[in-house]
Design brief:
Layout: H1 3-28, E1 32-35, E2 49-51, H2 58-71, H3 84-91
Antiparallel strand pairs: 1-2
């Protein structure tokens, strides 16, 4: 095996290990990875938020479904579900 081939092989192994390390880190990281220091002067919220691409999106899907139902006027169809409370608040 030539020196050039050995160097390429070692470099490839380092790249693969680095990628796996980053994926393991992201899998264990929180949903919000970082927030910008700059804040919106009116709301006080950060101007930029970096979200974890590997986060659990099930709460976001449930919220999206509820907002869609509210927008389309289907709150009555969701009667008795835990998601009914936002419909009651929005109807006031």
């Amino acid at each position: 095996m030539s020196t050039k081939t050995l160097v390429i092989l070692i470099a490839a192994v380092v790249v693969v290990l680095t990628v796996f390390g980053v994926l393991i880190w992201l899998a264990n990281a929180p949903a919000v990875l970082s927030r910008s220091e700059k804040k919106n002067p009116l709301s006080g919220r950060p101007l930029q938020v970096t979200l974890n691409p590997l986060r659990d999106r099930s709460p976001e899907r449930a919220a999206d479904e509820m907002v869609r139902a509210m927008h389309e006027g289907r709150c009555r169809e969701e009667e008795g579900s835990p998601a009914q409370e936002p419909c009651r608040r929005a109807a006031r």
